[in-house]
């Protein structure tokens, strides 16, 4: 079968346009899929953030009076912005109360263990944590704040590369150059591109993801339990001496709740 020159050119144009479309839309579909996964994994940070705020709220409550809590946080140089994260948050009262010979010793040990749990929760919020899957598929990992920001940075770099290498206006312009099917059609396509490439790209380009909006935002690590042990013991003893009945009521209530859970 003899093909004319025009038929061969048309066939080549169609093949080039097909490959261009596959490359253009394929790159964007890949990015869209990753963006969808990125946004879904924000739930990891929400969950880890809730653990932080619930423990923080319980620790503040365990100091009996707000000014006791404020004095403790100031003594260990933790900023008020972190303490304020617990404002209006749900308090998790399901935390084991240790045994000790005296009430004050029991109270101090409770404060120490509760603070250590909070330090660990903050670390897991920042770095992520492994967990055992319930479907028998082994272990998985919850993403942490630091890893989520790194992921956002890398994803945005790929978005920039796709936008720069295959901008919608450039692809449309190239397609117009290949389309020799008629002057009128070329004129119409050209009218939609010439002078409007910036607007086309603004509307059709892929947009950056924002990792900073997830969870609690950036949270600095807390001082280690060993570093603040003397402060906890000093504050705990002073509070127990001044608020003995309230301390006893707090520990008794938490013990009952722990038994139920």
From TrEMBL:
Record's protein name: Uncharacterized protein
Organism encoding this protein: Nitratidesulfovibrio vulgaris (strain ATCC 29579 / DSM 644 / CCUG 34227 / NCIMB 8303 / VKM B-1760 / Hildenborough) (Desulfovibrio vulgaris)
